[in-house]
Amino acid sequence: MTLAASDCGSCHEDAERAWAASRHASARTNETYAVSFAAARHEWCETCHAPQAERGVGCVSCHTTHARPADDVCAKCHQFDYPVRRTLDSGLVEYTDLPMQNTVAEWRRSSFSTKACADCHGAHDVRGARDVAWLRSILSLDAELEDDTWHVTVTANGAGHAVPTGDPFRVLRVAIHVPFEGRTPVLESAALERVAKQDGDRWILVDDTRIPAPTDGRTRSSVTVEFSAEVSLPKGAFVRLTYEYADPMHRRRIRDDDVVVSIADLELPR
Ligand code: HEC
Ligand code: HEC
Ligand code: HEC
Ligand code: HEC
Ligand code: HEC
To answer: Which of 53, 6, 54, 72 lies closest to 62, judged by CA?
Structure first.
């Protein structure tokens, strides 16, 4: 049977329905992408976000033959290096040797390398970090006071790679909030993120403070952040864990819950 890119759903209704509700179907049209693409309209972006034009990451982005795709089908878009910026508009993009998205390599070194990406994400619904209930179910917070230091631990249970993974703008933020005149401003905060900077034609990894992928058969892994406890906190102070999808500077242009969501609050032991 030959594959017509436009018509798979007429026979495969279940796959079509699950896919249509996914971020793959909206990879070109969702607001977060649309705003950032408008700022830098490189053809390169469309090779992953719109290989099938308005169908985004459509059926034939993964199915090139009339069968289940090869095991490494996710890698062509979910594992790539920072491009050399001056080549972005030439159609012949050159790459540096620093991963921009490293999800597949993280997964290969993890305890979950025996599971396929689709075993956790589904082949067509590809639920991910935009499924806030899922995020809340795998991430947890703990705090301990020791001498003059708060040790706040963030644990991920059941992620097959680092958390956050994927897009470099993804950040987990741990912040101490203190009640003040009916509001709860931030006293201190720490970001769990991967930071890289450009240096001419190269990119350099500056820091990686994310929750690493679990290894050695474990399903969970953690990161502990320290805050000074020299200042005594008022009653009601708490730690809040948030997940940022996009740079908060875009808040005015993108819907609020497409920029950042709240994952967990924990009252600090006194
Ligand atoms: C006219 C109906 C029809 C259309 C259109 C169609 N398929 Fe199929 N497809 C089938 C049938 C029937 C089967 C099961 C029999 C077989 O394996 O050949 C199948 C099997 C498959 C399988 C393998 C399923 C398995 O369990 O291994 C995949 C993957 C698939 N189709 C993808 C596609 C894609 C992608 C398109 C569009 C580019 C498409 N199909 C278009 C009827 C269709
Ligand atoms: C992101 C990649 C990707 C896209 C896009 C994709 N598929 Fe699939 N598809 C897969 C994978 C992976 C499997 C194998 C799942 C498994 O073995 O559990 C699969 C399996 C299938 C199957 C076999 C039976 C089943 O449902 O599991 C059919 C039929 C199918 N896809 C049709 C489609 C159609 C139709 C579309 C477009 C609406 C589509 N696929 C888009 C990755 C994709
Ligand atoms: C043709 C490129 C391409 C392929 C192949 C591909 N993806 Fe994606 N994927 C994308 C893009 C682009 C996005 C971001 C969409 C957006 O703008 O939100 C994405 C987003 C995702 C997300 C995030 C969803 C969320 O809610 O945060 C998951 C999970 C995902 N893909 C899993 C997979 C899996 C599993 C496979 C292989 C079966 C796969 N992808 C194959 C391009 C691809
Ligand atoms: C053991 C289960 C598991 C496996 C295997 C797994 N993931 Fe995930 N993935 C998760 C969980 C849980 C999340 C949500 C937490 C997070 O964002 O990291 C997630 C999140 C993601 C996201 C969303 C990141 C974001 O912020 O938008 C992408 C993209 C993704 N995974 C791709 C993949 C790809 C590609 C593979 C295979 C190479 C894979 N995952 C393997 C569990 C898994
Ligand atoms: C090699 C493939 C690839 C290229 C090229 C690419 N992206 Fe992506 N992009 C992805 C994948 C995969 C994701 C999903 C990662 C995740 O969920 O964390 C993504 C996610 C994003 C997101 C986050 C979307 C969301 O759901 O919040 C934005 C914004 C984005 N890309 C913009 C761009 C822009 C602008 C370009 C061009 C300058 C570009 N991308 C080029 C693969 C690519």
So the answer is: 72
Instruction: Please say whether the beta carbons of 238 and 265 come within 8 A.
Output: yes
Q: For 54-104, how does the pLDDT look when each residue is reduced to its tens digit (9 = 90+)?
A: 899 999 999 988 889 998 999 999 999 999 998 998 889 999 999 999 999
Ligand number, closest to the Cα atom of 70: 2
Q: How far apart are CA 264 and CA 255, in angstroms?
A: 21
pTM above 0.90, yes or no: yes
Closest ligand 3 atom to 51 CA: 1
Using alpha carbons only, give the angle 67, 70, 74 rounded to the nearest 5 degrees. 115
Domain that holds residue 210: 5-267
Cα 154 to its chain centre, rounded Å, is 16
Number of domains into which the chain is organized? 1
Residue 177: CB atoms within 10 Å: 20
Closest atom of ligand 3 relative to the 127 alpha carbon? 26
